Amino acid sequence: MLPYAAYLRVYEPLVAFAPAERVSWTAYAETADRPRRASALHAEHGEAVRRLLGVPPAPAPVQESPNAYLRRVEEVLYVCPWQSRLRSWLAFSRFRGATPPKLMERFVPPAVAKQTADDFDRFKRRTDSAALRTHIRGSTWHVPTSWFVPFDGNERWLVIDGGEGQGGTTTTRNLIYVTSMAHARRRSARALQIIRRQVGEVSVTAEVEDVARWLEEFHPHSLVELDYGGIVNLMDDETLQADESVAELAAALTGLEKGEEELAFAMYQRVILRWRSIQLLESAN
Prior knowledge:
- The protein is of the alpha+beta class.
- The chain has one domain.
- It contains eleven helices and nine strands.
- The protein has helices at residues 19-29, 37-52, 84-98, 101-107, 110-126, 181-198, 203-215, 237-242, 245-258, 261-279, 281-284, and strands at 5-13, 68-73, 76-81, 136-140, 156-159, 163-164, 170-171, 174-180, 223-227.
- The strands form two sheets. Strands 1, 2, 3, 4, 5, 8 and 9 form a seven-stranded antiparallel β-sheet that branches. A two-stranded antiparallel sheet has the order 6-7.
- The longest helix is centred in the C-terminal third of the chain and has 19 residues, at 261-279.
- It is globular and about 55 Å long.
- Residues 164-170 have low confidence and may be disordered.
């Protein structure tokens, strides 16, 4: 887990979980020492760094994390489990598959890599495909364009100066969007329809479809959240305040739908160029 990462999260209502899990998450929500939102990303990152700097490094935790991000809306508790072990396994599998063996050995000893892969294989054999579903997707150094699709510009929540908010809640500098699952699915379906009709089967079509399919895996009354997370540390206040990527992409889609090609292209280019400039910071580091 890298510090310069954004996250797409799904919070499911308590009723979406098995009875035993409902009891567990209800008790967890009342726990005084659980990680609060303002410190959760820092806690997750610190946990990952300690594992990877160990001797030997541990690509995945020994046990699944008991923690979760929580939201409460109109007395309904919504839960987004961290699933740190599962997410680490999946990330390690992708990394291992994309890295030449000799280079891989420089990051993780072969015996540790094999043990990690074997542990994941055993987990997959013991569970069904639903157990491989993660509530959190992460992206380093940029926010994928497809992640803006489920949201509306009016759902933007920007915090420039962190501090103490209402009810003593601590806030940190961030940019977040939150919407209902119904809205997220509807917007994703509309975007797919417009792109396929006006542009065809291009790379962005597959990316939007992937997000849409992922959203279908969860309870229909869930909440969907886009969290810029550590990405805000790559943006100064002026850049962060000016970021209207969700609204700009929505304008691009509407332009496509209405045949206003110049508007669609201009809005889409604003989004692409903004995030390309931020993503280039990775190579600068």
